[in-house]
Amino acid sequence: MNTHHLTAALDLADRRVPVLPLRAGKVPFGNCPACKDNACGGRPNMKTPGPCDCPQPCHAWAAATTDPATITGPAWAPLWKQAGAVAYHPGGTGLTVVDLDHAAAVAWARRELPATRTVSTTRGEHWIYRGAMPSVNAVRDGVDIKSTMVYARWLGPGTGTMTTLPETVRALIVKEPSPVRPLTVAVPTGGGECRHRTPAYLERGIAMAEQRITEAASAVHATVYRTFLAVLSAHGRCGCLTDAHAARLFAAAQTKGETARHCTDAWSNARTALGM
Predict the structure, then answer these.
(1) Largest Cα–Cα distance in the chain?
(2) How far apart are the C-alpha atoms of 28 and 18, rounded to whole Å?
(3) What is the 3-state secondary structure (H, E, C) of the chain?
(4) Which of 121, 132, 140, 153 could bond 91 through an S-S bridge, CB–CB 3.0 to 4.6 Å?
(5) What proportion of the chain, given as a percentage, has pLDDT over 70?
(6) How many CA atoms lie within 13 A of 120 on its CB side?
(7) Do strands 85-88 and 152-153 pair parallel, antiparallel, or not at all (unpaired)?
(8) What gap in Å lies between CA 40 and CA 54, rounded to an integer?
């Protein structure tokens, strides 16, 4: 067992920093057989884990934990033998990492950003601020924002005093909204008895589903999956649900920041869960 990585993970967990092991190549361990191809519905939010209760660290950042019993338990113990590094979920402990990938990016940060705690990386630096925000890659050349719903590699405590997340960093992710991508999705053709006495019944159900997604303040992944599951359960077996209805739900999810791939996976997983 790699006691160095395990000791570091337990030390971080003791300080309420959620951690997980990384394998060689600085990537998470692959999904376990029960979760392969996201068949479990995913584990999109570590605080609101959704339908998956898998104890293994196979859902990347969402598996990060501060529970020492899990970290040293039977599901994780074999993985520490293979671990190449320790990762943590910055947003889970209220932090944001500005990942500067090369010397030019570091020079830009020194000119434009307030000083804070810094950690040297193999190619640049991590600048760590107190405060969480959405994570976005490539906000400019060589600059990634790592906070919520991502992991960052633990490279040591760093140097300097950690300061509050500045507006200059938050502003890096502000941009004009992208147009919603049109999608083709599989809609059940039905065959069962229609329970929709009027078209208004289905319309009201779709409108309520759109509203549920739009109003999600957190756990958007889980909300999208559960909403798709509810819509398909109520309207997916009689043939009334159309591509246009599904497109409305996908558009609502993408407006909340979901990718087209996640929408497709969530829809497919919901259909599978319902035996469609």
Answers:
(1) 67
(2) 14
(3) CCHHHHHHHHHHHHCCCCEEEEECCCEECCCCHHHHHHCCCCCCCCCCCCCCCCCCCCCHHHHCECCHHHHCCCCCHHHHCCCCEEEECHHHHCEEEEEECCHHHHHHHHHHCCCCEEEECCCCEEEEEECCCCCEEEEECCEEEEECECCEECCCCCECCCEECCHHHHHHHCCCCCCCCCCCCCCCCCCCCCCCCCHHHHHHHHHHHHHHHHCCCCCHHHHHHHHHHHHHHHHCCCCCCCHHHHHHHHHHHHHCCCCHHHHHHHHHHHHHHCCC
(4) 132
(5) 86
(6) 2
(7) antiparallel
(8) 9
CA distance 146 to 90: 7
pTM, 2 dp: 0.63
Buried b (16+ CB within 10 A) or exposed e, 124-159: bbbbbbebbbebbeebeebbbbbbbbbbbbbeeeee
pLDDT (tens digit, 9 = 90+) per residue, 132-149?
988 888 899 999 999 988
Label residue 33 left, alpha or beta by phi (over 0 means left) and psi (-120 to 50 means alpha): alpha
d(CA 11, CA 23): 19
CA distance 174 to 189: 41
Tokens 């407006």 found at: 255
The distance of Cα 97 from the centroid of its chain, to the nearest Å, equals 16
| Range with the poorest average pLDDT among 18-27, 163-172, 211-220, 221-230 | 211-220
Residue given tokens 């599951």 in the structure block:
229
Measured CA to CA, the distance from residue 98 to residue 239 in angstroms comes to 48
Please name the amino acid found at residue 146: K
Does the structure show a pLDDT above 60 at 6? yes
